[in-house]
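Fill in residues.
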């Protein structure tokens, strides 16, 4: 029997657009068998790489991690600003090379709203509105087939529901060892 391919979901948007919150909720609602790959964690924590430096490793590193998880049978939710000027080629190649279902979403939130949301975070990163303006790229689309723009009026629940259903992830069964073939999961020890 040929196993189906896992689903790749890419969630992008400017700082403070809600992409991390939405991505985490998509993964939480899906459960085991779905990997969450966060650009900020990989670039800032694991690599400690500045996003403005020359010869960045982060774009290829992030795409390689996503491919490894997909190859392992995990559905993947990849999230981040993933600015097309730096990450576009790696993300487009990841989507184009994936033989299974892939869906891309851009959370389109105005600059003023991104600042408001950023300041309302329990632990905002220490940046000013002027710094955020330097990073802000309105409607920075990848230009891949089927890419969806999610307007700022969309609530978290509506955004997560859209992503889960539109991408097909809500109907996609687990394909990774955990929980599909794992003895521990089979025993109810998820």
């Amino acid at each position: 029997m040929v196993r189906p391919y896992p689903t790749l979901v890419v969630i992008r948007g400017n700082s403070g657009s809600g992409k991390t919150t939405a991505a985490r909720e998509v993964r939480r609602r899906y459960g085991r068998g779905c990997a969450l790959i966060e650009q900020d964690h990989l670039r800032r924590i694991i690599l400690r790489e500045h996003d403005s430096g020359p010869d960045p490793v982060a774009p290829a590193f992030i795409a390689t991690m996503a491919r490894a998880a997909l190859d392992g049978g995990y559905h993947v939710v990849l999230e981040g600003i993933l600015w097309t000027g730096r990450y576009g080629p790696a993300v487009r190649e990841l989507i184009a090379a994936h033989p299974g279902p892939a869906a891309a979403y851009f959370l389109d939130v105005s600059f003023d709203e991104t600042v408001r949301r950023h300041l309302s975070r329990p632990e905002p990163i220490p940046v000013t509105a002027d710094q955020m303006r330097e990073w802000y790229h309105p409607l920075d689309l990848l230009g891949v087939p089927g890419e969806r723009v999610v307007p700022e009026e969309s609530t978290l629940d509506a955004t997560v529901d859209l992503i889960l259903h539109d991408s097909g992830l809500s109907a996609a069964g687990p394909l990774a060892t955990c929980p599909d073939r794992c003895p521990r999961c089979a025993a109810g020890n998820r």
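The chain has one domain: 8-186.
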